[in-house]
């Protein structure tokens, strides 16, 4: 059984998500990179495994707009590491031409992640407790005419 804490990071294959994964690995966490971009996730995995060990990092496909994908991520993480201590809801997009997709990823995806974390990590459900971290953009606090529909979805942590 894993004694190290375990984190799932959505959108963990690149950018801020990848940086979060690396920092978690540096501090002794085992990490599951949950990302819709399978190729980038596998490339990131191959880069990081030699540094942090194959036994400490895995990847799982996750479209955050599908609750069933979150279930698969949690199931794989528990099967591999025997626990989940942290969920970082980091996946997010910016696309002024697809407002519904932005809302689905940035807001609904966060809700699905929280719901699944409470189910798997919640003490009332037999879990060990843990933490959920939801990343957001400052665009949610100050409206920007160039961002448009994204402002509302970026407000989710403040609601």
From TrEMBL:
Enzyme Commission number, as recorded: 1.1.1.141, 1.1.1.232
Classification via Gene3D superfamilies: NAD(P)-binding Rossmann-like Domain
Keywords from the UniProt entry: Oxidoreductase
Catalytic reactions on record: (11R)-hydroxy-(5Z,8Z,12E,14Z)-eicosatetraenoate + NAD(+) = 11-oxo-(5Z,8Z,12E,14Z)-eicosatetraenoate + NADH + H(+); lipoxin A4 + NAD(+) = 15-oxo-(5S,6R)-dihydroxy-(7E,9E,11Z,13E)-eicosatetraenoate + NADH + H(+); prostaglandin E1 + NAD(+) = 15-oxoprostaglandin E1 + NADH + H(+); prostaglandin A1 + NAD(+) = 15-oxo-prostaglandin A1 + NADH + H(+)
Gene Ontology, cellular component aspect: cytoplasm
MF-aspect GO terms: 15-hydroxyicosatetraenoate dehydrogenase activity; 15-hydroxyprostaglandin dehydrogenase (NAD+) activity
Membership in a protein family: Belongs to the short-chain dehydrogenases/reductases (SDR) family.
PANTHER family, alphabetized: 15-HYDROXYPROSTAGLANDIN DEHYDROGENASE [NAD(+)] (PTHR44229)
Protein name, entry field: 15-hydroxyprostaglandin dehydrogenase [NAD(+)]
């Amino acid at each position: 059984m894993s004694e190290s804490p375990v984190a799932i990071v959505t959108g963990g294959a690149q950018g801020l998500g990848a940086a979060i994964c690396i920092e978690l690995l540096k501090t002794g966490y085992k990490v599951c990179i949950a990302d819709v971009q399978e190729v980038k996730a596998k490339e990131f995995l191959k880069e990081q495994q030699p540094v942090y060990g194959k036994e400490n990092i895995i990847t799982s496909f996750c479209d955050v707009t599908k609750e069933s994908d979150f279930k698969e991520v949690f199931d794989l993480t528990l099967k591999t590491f025997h626990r989940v201590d942290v969920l970082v809801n980091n996946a997010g997009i910016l696309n002024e031409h697809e407002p519904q997709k932005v809302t689905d990823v940035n807001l609904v995806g966060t809700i699905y992640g929280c719901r699944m974390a409470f189910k798997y990590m919640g003490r009332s459900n037999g879990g060990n407790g843990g933490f959920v971290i939801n990343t957001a953009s400052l665009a949610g606090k100050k409206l920007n005419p160039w961002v448009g529909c994204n402002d509302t979805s970026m407000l989710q942590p403040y609601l």
